[in-house]
């Protein structure tokens, strides 16, 4: 038993010692003619034995080493271990090593389960080919147990890292790590294990290094780089190709496949970086470089198993104002100037909610008016080159550029006219995008505002509808 019981153990050895002393007394009593050297010899042995027993008792207690069991004691070592699972995601359905062994035994030799299991336990030791597998293929071989001595181990055979990634360093696994392996279970000549060849992977670990990327840095000289279109035209030979990532596949084993194009706004790539080595992960919109030999496979021009690096990360969009008028007028206000105090700008619900302006009286007759739809204050303190866009359409405007205008202000008091690039046709209520409108003049202002200014005449009152107002920038 592992718990030290000083008194009971000491008493046991002391009793044995006492019996030996009694034996010496009897010998001396019944055999007085025996040479005195015998008595001294016995006494000397008893003294050494006594000191040895004291040393064993004290050492055993100090280091928590189990003593030989008594005749009625359990000889199995029971170790209570509480794993450090801080930050680990252990599924409720995870099974122990003992349960995995039982499942493996139940399916019989040579069989594999169709079901995948979450198997939790400690790493007890590594397989003989673990180091070679890690260095050459990025897979691991180790034995798992439940933290209790005795019993059988479960072999995690040729498994990959989190999410099926390849391991990039021996440091990512260590003996006594508490792990969860996700895999099927196979019975290989009574050895219960994962099927191998990457069938299973690490699901969680309390060794935080499994989440680190130890793959080497990749540096590509882009001095003589060519464009994606030039690579397509080249069709063969070694090159460094630069372009935007249009679509990407998830990184696997330190490699990633990316479709590239020279135009960042393209919807489909024209050149493929196929399973290329990369540090980190490429995302859509990144400006990247890939080097290697160009080949054509089934009409696809590509570099296969080359090196890839991100030259410039995709810019992030910062939204300073976004209003769809989905439920109401939002933070906008209406300022009317005209003969009538009517709500020239009004909120319109329906399939496409919007703010609508039209200056007509109760009889539907137009009148001379001007009405402003003014935004709330926009904080552009940290902005560098913000832009404005919105969706709109008009009907019956005779001079849209003068009747349907846009003004901007840094303080809400001093206003400047800004051109709207695109108007709708003016016949059918068809929304168009205004186009990007440069608001760099407002950068740094914390009380910036925009205003949509509607004007009408007594003989004509166009209708103007606006929604999806966006002030943003990429940086």
What does this structure look like?
The protein has 475 residues and is of the alpha+beta class. It has four domains: 6-63; 97-211, OB fold (Dihydrolipoamide Acetyltransferase, E2P), CATH 2.40.50; 228-312, OB fold (Dihydrolipoamide Acetyltransferase, E2P), CATH 2.40.50.140; 320-474, Jelly Rolls (Sandwich), CATH 2.60.120. 17% of the residues lie in helices and 33% in strands. The chain is built from six helices and 25 strands. The chain has helices at 6-30, 36-63, 97-107, 130-137, 228-234, 400-403, and strands at 117-126, 140-145, 154-159, 178-183, 186-188, 191-193, 201-205, 237-248, 255-261, 271-278, 287-297, 300-304, 307-312, 317-323, 333-338, 345-348, 354-357, 369-374, 387-395, 404-409, 416-418, 432-433, 437-438, 449-456, 463-474. The strands form five sheets. Strands 14, 16, 17, 19, 22, 23 and 25 form a seven-stranded antiparallel sheet that branches. Strands 8, 9, 10, 11, 12 and 13 form a six-stranded mixed sheet that branches. A hairpin with a 2-residue loop joins strand 5 and strand 6. Helix 1 (6-30) runs antiparallel to helix 2 (36-63). The longest helix is centred in the N-terminal third of the chain and has 28 residues, at 36-63. The chain is elongated. The two termini are 66 Å apart. Residues 1-48 and 55-80 have low confidence and may be disordered.
